[in-house]
Design goal:
CATH class of one domain: Mainly Alpha
Shape: globular
CATH architecture of one domain: Alpha Horseshoe
Number of strands: 0
Oligomer: single chain
Length: 760
């Protein structure tokens, strides 16, 4: 305004004011159409949050503007706010119930949110008004397919194909349903129709080649891939799919030829380098992945996807310094980069700094509560540090944010399996195998679950499939050996494990499993010879010394075992199992102070591993050091509040030191909830009830303990206390007498005699 006045002169102030008012007079009269236009402009420039604001302004002007609700929904979904998008579509449907476009987009959101029946209903509603709506038939078919109504879904997609006979995607959808129904010939015909309709529709070639692979027609599949590549020379996924199929058939040279052709064609394309790098990572060849991704970074130094993939490849290849340097560079340019921060936290956790990792990941999640990567990484840190209940909660959050992410499903299934949650593990592993049928890791995990469920033939089928998919993966042969042993085929198990070690000559897990096979066959000398032979070639392998120590320990050679465990720790100071084995050896020789020192070193490596902290607490308890026992039991509970053994033991400490009976009762109740069938927990809970004067609750617990373990004098002593307090003097006296006859010790024995004197 000052600028207007400056060039007009002193006498023109009124005129200037009039001009300014005239120029601004239209502002109060901006209508919904104005804001709609601005919203659409922002959408075209991918400024989705700004577009959302403009569409909301339009609705303030006209709350019945259906197009504004639709625009708002599209802006919000692009901005990542599915809930707001859903709300906008619901309101749009309310004000314009006959708008099929709103109903169809609402149905798509219902489908994505697993509200399948609601999606189906939206499709039916649209079809009642518009029977030839291709989008409605598409939604209906997808909804029926999600409900496993294959026959009905096929009819819907067939109707769609009649409406759009030259639409390749429609034909592919129909083919997928037909193949799922077992109608492979019809499915192949639909896929060929799709290719004829659009030779550039890559999904048609991929599905047709996959079908031909299932039909064991490798020559036909190769021809389909070649046809697809000729029509779509830039379709990287065709090269990779063909190479993957060749690897699965153990045709390594053919697969490499396909990948070489891709490099020659797209050697200057960072997208090709990224795809190749990710391909080699999935194959378990991280060094080759690094080479491809470093080439991609040279081509596109600022490509964030390439940078993130390279960080992961560095970590997979064990090149931590290179990963850290790249993470530092990424965070210098983008301090809030989630992937880089998550990778940094993973490195911290791998180096034993789990608290720092947890703090960073919590900050990541605080900045972005819907970060699946953040929740996933936090779950893994909790799991590796022994905080199992917290890990389970974070896995659930990660799966909520990314329900079909293969890496999350794989880790979650393995975690549930480790916790013996077999039903949940089976559901997760089955979903993973369905989503990634060509993943050897997915098939192996499902096989492990089947084996844990006692379904040995089904497990063997899964492992054989994994072997076909990844013949160079040593883990496949380890799993096959596990099934061999479960079916009593020790010789076959040994052969499979020797194959694993030929595939990977430094495969310590296979060596350990092979030693176990010989030990189970009562051939300890053979086990010792095999491990010794490995060590002759690999003297610096600490884990192998640990394996030899375990063999010697089982043979009763404690001196030799101690020497091997000690040597293992000297070579690899982070071998927690060697500390635990050495500590157990010391315990068996009643060298408890040395065992305690070793266990504490192990705990320094795994400070949040509840079983180890509890073990140390028990050693202090045996030594009568209640203060240190309490400290370590509390450390275990800090790591995992639901660790029942630590809760029960800490309750016992409180009860026997006369401290905080209320806390003791709470801890004992928690322990009982986690370990409902453990007699010692029942005894501790009963003693807490006795201390609180709740005798009626104490008595049945103690009677149950005695019924299961009649020779434990402490149970009878505690029952005597509860009986005496509740007025049953005769039975109380009998229990005190039996406790003394069973050699009740220490202060309890003295008190039992005092009670007998009182009860005469």
């Amino acid at each position: 305004m000052a600028g207007v006045k400056s060039w007009m002169g002193q006498g023109a102030g009124v005129a200037a004011a009039a001009l300014m008012l005239a120029g601004c007079s239209h502002i109060p009269f901006r209508d919904a159409g104005f804001y709609m236009q601005r919203g659409n402009q922002y959408m075209s420039r991918s400024r989705y949050k700004d577009a959302s604001i403009e569409f909301r302004k339009a609705l303030q002007q006209d709350p019945h503007q259906a197009d504004a609700y639709l625009g708002l929904a599209r802006a919000d979904i692009k901005a990542g706010d599915a809930a707001a998008s859903y709300a906008a579509l619901r309101e749009g449907e309310r004000v314009a119930p006959r708008r099929s476009d709103i109903r169809l987009e609402l149905g798509q959101l219902d489908l994505a949110a697993k509200q399948i029946e609601a999606a189906e209903q939206e499709a039916h509603t649209v079809l009642q008004a518009e029977p030839r709506s291709a989008a409605a038939w598409q939604l209906l078919g997808a909804s029926l397919l999600a409900q496993k109504q294959g026959a009905a879904a096929e009819k819907a997609f067939a109707q769609l194909a009649q409406l759009q006979p030259r639409d390749a995607s429609t034909q592919v959808n129909l083919a997928v349903v037909q193949i799922g129904q077992g109608q492979r010939a019809q499915g192949e015909a639909s896929l060929r129709t799709a290719i004829a309709a659009d030779p550039h529709f890559v999904a048609a070639y991929l599905n047709l080649a996959k079908l031909q692979g299932l039909e064991r027609q490798p020559a036909a599949a190769a021809q389909t891939y070649q046809q697809g590549i000729e029509a779509n020379p830039k379709a990287i996924e065709l090269y990779l799919a063909q190479a993957n199929g060749l690897y699965a058939d153990n045709q390594t040279s053919g697969a490499e030829a396909v990948l070489t052709a891709l490099r020659q064609r797209d050697g200057d394309d960072p997208a090709a380098a990224l795809a190749l790098g990710q391909f080699y990572r999935r194959l378990g060849q991280p060094r080759r992945a690094v080479a491809e991704l470093e080439h991609g970074r040279q081509l596109a130094p600022d490509n964030r996807d390439v940078q993130h993939a390279l960080v992961n490849a560095y970590l997979q290849a064990g090149q931590t310094p290179q990963a850290q340097a790249l993470i530092h560079a990424i965070l210098h340019e983008a301090p809030r980069d989630v992937a880089a921060r998550v990778a940094e936290a993973r490195i911290a956790a791998s180096e034993g700094h789990s608290d720092a990792a947890v703090a960073e990941l919590r900050q990541v999640i605080g900045d972005d509560p819907e970060s699946a990567a953040g929740h996933f990484a936090l779950a893994q840190v909790y799991a590796s540090s022994g905080s199992f209940s917290l890990a389970q909660a974070e896995f659930a959050q990660a799966r909520t944010q990314a329900p079909d992410d293969g890496a999350i499903l794989l880790a979650a299934a393995r975690f549930e399996l480790s916790q013996q949650n077999l039903q949940s593990a089976n559901t997760t592993a089955s979903r993973l195998a369905q989503l990634e049928p060509n993943s050897a890791a997915a098939q192996m995990t499902l096989g492990e679950v089947r084996l844990a469920q006692g379904q040995v033939p089904a497990a063997m089928a899964q492992f054989q499939l994994a072997k076909k998919l990844a013949p160079q993966d040593p883990v496949v042969y380890q799993r096959l050996a596990t099934v061999d042993m479960a079916t009593g085929q020790a010789a076959a198990a040994a052969r499979d494990l020797e194959t694993a070690m030929r595939v990977n000559p430094h495969d310590d897990p296979a060596l350990a499993q092979l030693a176990d096979v010989w030990m189970q066959q009562k051939q300890p000398a053979a086990a010792q010879r095999r491990v010794a032979a490995y060590l002759a070639a690999n003297p610096g392998d600490g884990h192998a010394h640990e394996i030899l120590g375990a063999v010697l320990d089982k043979e009763g050679n404690r001196g030799g075992a101690e020497a091997e465990f000690t040597h293992a720790i000297q070579l690899e100071p982070a071998l927690v199992v060697s500390y635990l084995q050495l500590g157990r050896t010391y315990q068996e020789e009643n060298r408890n102070s040395e065992a305690l020192a070793v266990y504490q070193k192990a705990l320094a490596l795994r400070p949040k591993f509840p079983p180890l902290a509890t073990l140390i607490g028990n050693l202090y308890l045996q030594a009568g050091d209640m203060a240190n026992a309490r400290r370590y039991f509390q450390q275990a509970l800090d790591a995992d509040p639901d660790f029942g053994v630590a809760a029960g033991n800490l309750a016992w400490v409180y009860l026997h030191t006369g401290q905080n009976v209320d806390m003791a009762l709470s801890l004992a109740q928690r322990a009982k909830q986690e370990l409902p069938a453990v007699d010692s927990i029942d005894d501790t809970l009963a003693l807490a009830y006795y201390k609180k004067g709740i005798y009626a609750d104490a008595l049945p617990l103690l009677r149950s303990c005695i019924a299961k373990e009649p020779a434990v004098p402490e149970y009878r002593y505690h029952l005597g206390l509860a009986l005496a307090a509740s007025g049953n003097r005769t039975e109380a006296r009998a229990q005190f007498q039996q406790a003394l006859q069973l050699k009740l010790q220490g202060a309890d024995a003295q008190q039992a005699n005092v009670w007998l004197a009182k009860l005469k």
